[in-house]
Amino acid sequence: MFDDLQDFYEWFAQRNMENSYEIKKVSLDEMPGWGSDPRTGDISHESGKFFSIRGLRVSTDHRETARWEQPIIVQPEIGILGMIVKVVNGRTYCLMQAKMEPGNVNLLQLSPTVQATRSNYTGVHQGNKVPYLEYFVAPRSGRVVVDALQSEQGSWFLNKRNRNIIVEVHDDVPVGDDFCWLSLDQIAELMRVPNLINMDSRTVLSGISFVAPEWGEWAETGLDHGCGLGEPLHSKEQLLSWFTEVKSQYSLERELVPLSEITPWRNSPGRIEHVESRHFSVVGVHVTATNREVSEWSQPMLEPVERGVVGFLGRNINGLFHILVHARTEAGTYDIVEMAPTVSCIPGSYTRSSRERWPRYFDELLRAGENGTLVDVVHSEEGGRFYHAENRYLVVDAGEGFGLDVPEDYCWMTVEQLMEFVRYGNHVNVAARCLLSCLVDRTTRKQLVEI
Amino acid sequence: MFDDLQDFYEWFAQRNMENSYEIKKVSLDEMPGWGSDPRTGDISHESGKFFSIRGLRVSTDHRETARWEQPIIVQPEIGILGMIVKVVNGRTYCLMQAKMEPGNVNLLQLSPTVQATRSNYTGVHQGNKVPYLEYFVAPRSGRVVVDALQSEQGSWFLNKRNRNIIVEVHDDVPVGDDFCWLSLDQIAELMRVPNLINMDSRTVLSGISFVAPEWGEWAETGLDHGCGLGEPLHSKEQLLSWFTEVKSQYSLERELVPLSEITPWRNSPGRIEHVESRHFSVVGVHVTATNREVSEWSQPMLEPVERGVVGFLGRNINGLFHILVHARTEAGTYDIVEMAPTVSCIPGSYTRSSRERWPRYFDELLRAGENGTLVDVVHSEEGGRFYHAENRYLVVDAGEGFGLDVPEDYCWMTVEQLMEFVRYGNHVNVAARCLLSCLVDRTTRKQLVEI
């Protein structure tokens, strides 16, 4: 455990030096082990494992565009994102891993204790055994405190889910070379550093309030400020009813189609891209690494055209900070909609003059910074599948002048109310979970109640 | 409102007399408006609406049989099962409807206030307007107290869900000819009468504890008996983790295939049946009725080979009555497993000598009656799709001699714990919800705590 973060930064720099990696973009035709089906153009691994990239035709009445086609990652297996935590003297410590992912802009980031696809732990990789995996598969010695199947990026994955699991241990845990304990306070501080706490950590941490004793204390801090005494705008029943109503009202139909036939996408030599350079491209990368399960490999990845923006607009209602949650439909959403940030978009994929609607609340989100910005930091998306995919994460106070009337697929709820839905899986999408994890700390809690 | 149930029975007999119906089984080839696709054999309505009967190929590692084919009802639209309730002097009253369904053995049963498919209320029927529908579609005047998308019979429907919704009103509601108010106490008593409270009512009533003030009072009655002071065997986190673990562990893959090609099913002249007369058949019926939306129609239905058994084995653990919940996979289950009764089967589909396993806990369920039977009643399944489909509903006390160790896809939980999961939709299957609704009354609550 680190007494202060300077020690952590030194350790992390050391990890960076002791492992050398080289990432090279390659043509999709030059990836050993991977190939395109001559009939469909679908990209898959010769073992039939890992994942494949296929074409998807989407029809829905819940987006600006009623029908579109796109490449999508198909990976039906459920992976594990597992965090070992330990509570010592009322403080929560998480066992984090310094882990290289080829898509990260800075290669090395902090992942949860275990980040394993089913292929990882059933040996398809023929690589090393996944450390600490035994804590997450039955029979396990620790106490499971959070355990839910959660969705990943619905715009890029079809129905993909990972098991997000937090296990509390009381006994000593041997700490491997690339692993370290960080307190929740330290993680909260590091969450303000760009591209350091990876997506897998952020999604798991969105459930940490169910284990951390600090959480109760922080909540009380709020009450001491004389705020937080009001009632949420909507009861839990009303929120569930809103969610049910949106699900009943909209439809989402998907059909897998040959990757080579989707429009308006083209197979430029070696990569698949949108003809107007919107959304993302499918690219190949070659990786040489020394501390991964295997030391060299190639794989396809999705590369967004530019940095995205995900953010919650919030405001004080009845003395409680509420955020505006969007019931959002994405191509790969498991069950029509999930609870999402107020805004999620890649602005470069829109033009103000285009036939598509400029993203709702986007301008308000950027403007609202004047009243108070609670979170404003750039984080990376999963570096195992996405190449240099970054989002600007924002939580802003829009002020009490911001009207309470919102379209029917938006709903005001408190941070605690949204957190509670994280428990049940497939309710809160990955961007919203990542934003929640940026709100789990003493400083932000104090800010929240002072709004 | 009826002062005593005798008045209700008289009213119900009157309803039966004032509406006459004739149900006739017909060949699948003799249903006006319905036809078989000459290429696939799939049965559908010429309008493309209502539902269709298609072939399904199932692969799973979570049943005795790893692979099978069967006919299945495909009805992707989400219907409404809605109940209007009113609380007067601390007692809850439900607005019930005397409703004919062609598949009911006794034709007339008590349904919720509204029981409408999307076709019903968007006018595909070209029939009468659905009474009281305006209470369930926004903007509505009442207070929504329960609202969730719930699954229907997974063995017979593919991914079918209905919106189960309870709306509490304060104003006067005009009571139509086929409608009546019944108190929760009266409904509980009628729930012990065979084939009276229909499936749609039972599933909606499984959420009634979230509105009924009686519930708190009955729970307290329990505590007064000096019982119910213990802790549940598993915490909510542990139950969620168990459910997540089972979902992660098993797989369920489905593929729609031509109905005419599934094996071992045969198209006997006019009906589709299993060659060994197991499971169910697909049959045609012709209906002549005077008080339905339209006065005459034909439709296909599923007819089970015999009466089924669904039941919870329970026992006292730590002073609380626990039931043994099965995480069950059925052909049409939306997300791999749902929480189901300990036993659900059609015994006639098994033989003790067959290669398939005799249903687990079936013998124990029937034997356990000796310790105490809390529920033992025959109810009908949905009479709009199923012909003479009955199940014997059982909740029995297996006694403390019954071991706590159970297979990994079974889990002990209290009745309240299972009820809480009903809120979230797609957690508790329809058989389990129907059993829960049999436990929502004063007498049973007292029995439970006395075990």
Largest interface: A-B, 23 and 23 residues
The CATH first-level class of the domain at 219-252 and 306-450 in chain A comes to Alpha Beta
DSSP strand content of chain A:
25-35%
Structural class of chain A: alpha+beta
The residue-averaged pLDDT of chain A reads 91
Amino-to-carboxy terminus distance of chain A: 34 Å
- Strand segment count of chain A: 24
**Shape verdict of chain A:** globular
Helix share of residues of chain A? 10-25%
- The multimeric state of the shown protein is homodimer
Largest β-sheet summary of chain A: 7 strands, mixed
What Rg of chain A, in angstroms, do the CA atoms define? 22 Å
What is the helix tally of chain A?
10
CATH architecture descriptor text of the domain at 219-252 and 306-450 in chain A: Alpha-Beta Complex
Organism (chains A, B): Actinopolyspora mortivallis
Pfam families (chains A, B): Hexose_dehydrat
GO molecular function, one term (chains A, B): lyase activity
InterPro entries (chains A, B): EvaA-like, EvaA-like_sf
